[in-house]
Amino acid sequence: MANMNFQTLARHIIEQERKHPEATGELSSLLHDLSLAAKVISLEVNKAGLVDILGFTGDNNVHGEQVKKLDMYAHDMMIRAMDHGGHLCAMASEEEEDIIHIPPHFHVGKYVLIFDPLDGSSNIDANVSIGTIFSIYRRISPDNQPGTTEDCLQPGHNQVAAGYILYGSSTVLVYTAGSGVHGFTLDPAFGEFILSHKNIQTPKKAKIYSINEGNYLYWHPGLKKYIKYLQDEDKATNRPYSSRYIGSMVADIHRNLLYGGIFMYPADSRNPNGKLRLMYECNPMAFIIEQAGGRATNGKQRMLDIQPENLHQRVPIFIGSEEDVKMVEKFMAEVEVKARK
Ligand code: AHG
Ligand code: MN
Ligand code: MN
């Protein structure tokens, strides 16, 4: 007989909640709503090659980048799935300049949801993995009022939950609510997320590095030295490392979470703040990776301690296996010390 002893996401969330008698069930219910949005987006992503959804809408998003239709589909779907649950007081999306209010006829709750509806969207046409990233905070403004921008602009260490949904060879939802990182694979037959990766811990040191090496010329000299170091041969430290770069942060980080490794999107002489966004991409991933025993910084400071100044701010990121992240920080700091002498 088939083994029916599996755990669905819904059951897992309820069981996690039972460990916290003070919990009201609101966060569980919010995560459940999110998983519904994930299933709908996953279906649409899987159909991407079949329906007339590929191609540019002709619009630019707030970062001046071209937006593909599926980005907007995912953005709209997240809002439609989440605005009436009664758990949120505001949302913010990478695809929208300002915060998104809860329509006045819906109940206003105590949480804020921040999301990147579709990450890695330049990969859609090539059938390469993409994802949705989310981050949840408790509001800081008084209850029962519309949420404010300040509710969204909290440092990452205030996150109560974060996660991503990776639309890859299968659809996987990975989340943390502050007690470990758990991964669920969508069973396309049942339409249920089933626990497949229990309490994920990332290796302390690995041999994968992920960075867009096309930007080499513009990097910090310490970073150039570090990458050359990784490419040198030394059996004792497992070098040379392997280079793996998909160009979808969510897919690159998921692989590194499981296998270990370092993912970097540094500042460079053309982009002094790097490319990735603190609120939509870096903070949720930093929370997950720290919960899995890894490290995430901007090269100098813990990512989760950065005080955000605006919703769409960009930040350099070094994230992954703890020893590897510490090593790149060391290389960059050494060059700076030498330069000052
Ligand atoms: P998005 O599709 O949400 O705009 O994010 C794309 C990001 C991220 O997923 C990826 O790591 C990075 O852009 C890749 O950038 P490069 O093409 O500059 O390497
Ligand atoms: Mn993104
Ligand atoms: Mn995006």
Give the arrangement of secondary structure elements.
Elements: H1 9-18, H2 26-46, E1 56-60, E2 66-68, H3 69-82, E3 88-93, E4 100-101, E5 111-119, E6 130-138, H4 149-152, E7 159-167, E8 171-176, E9 181-187, E10 192-197, E11 208-210, H5 221-231, E12 242-243, H6 249-259, E13 262-265, H7 278-291, E14 295-297, E15 317-320, H8 322-340
Parallel strand pairs: 3-5, 11-12, 11-13
Antiparallel strand pairs: 1-2, 3-4, 5-6, 6-7, 7-8, 8-9, 9-10, 13-15, 14-15
Helix pairs in contact: 1-2, 2-3, 5-8
Bound molecules: 2,5-anhydro-1,6-di-O-phosphono-D-glucitol and manganese (II) ion (2 copies).
Describe this structure in words.
The chain has 341 residues and is of the alpha+beta class. It has two domains: 189 residues, Fructose-1,6-Bisphosphatase, Chain A, domain 1 (2-Layer Sandwich), CATH 3.30.540.10; 133 residues, D-Maltodextrin-Binding Protein, domain 2 (3-Layer(aba) Sandwich), CATH 3.40.190. The protein has eight helices and 15 strands. β8 and β9 form a beta hairpin. Bound molecules: 2,5-anhydro-1,6-di-O-phosphono-D-glucitol and manganese (II) ion (2 copies). One manganese (II) ion (MN) binds next to β5.
Keywords:
binds 2,5-anhydro-1,6-di-O-phosphono-D-glucitol, alpha+beta, 341 residues, single chain, binds manganese (II) ion, Fructose-1,6-Bisphosphatase, Chain A, domain 1, 8 helices
Q: Please name the CATH architecture of the largest domain.
A: 2-Layer Sandwich
| Low-confidence residue ranges | none
SSE pattern, N- to C-terminal? HHEEHEEEEHEEEEEHEHEHEEH
Strand content: 15-25%
Supply the CATH superfamily name of the largest domain: Fructose-1,6-Bisphosphatase, subunit A, domain 1
Q: How many domains make up the coordinates?
A: 2
| Helix segment tally | 8
Q: In total, how many beta strands? A: 15
Biggest sheet strand order reads 4-3-5-6-7-8-9-10
What overall form do the CA principal axes indicate?
Answer: globular
| CATH class category name of the largest domain | Alpha Beta
Mean pLDDT: 93
Distinct ligand kinds: 2,5-anhydro-1,6-di-O-phosphono-D-glucitol, manganese (II) ion
Helical residues, percent: 25-40%
Rg from C-alpha positions? Answer: 20 Å
How far apart the termini lie comes to 71 Å
Q: What does the largest sheet look like? A: 8 strands, mixed
Structural class: alpha+beta
Can you tell me the CATH topology of the largest domain?
Answer: Fructose-1,6-Bisphosphatase, Chain A, domain 1
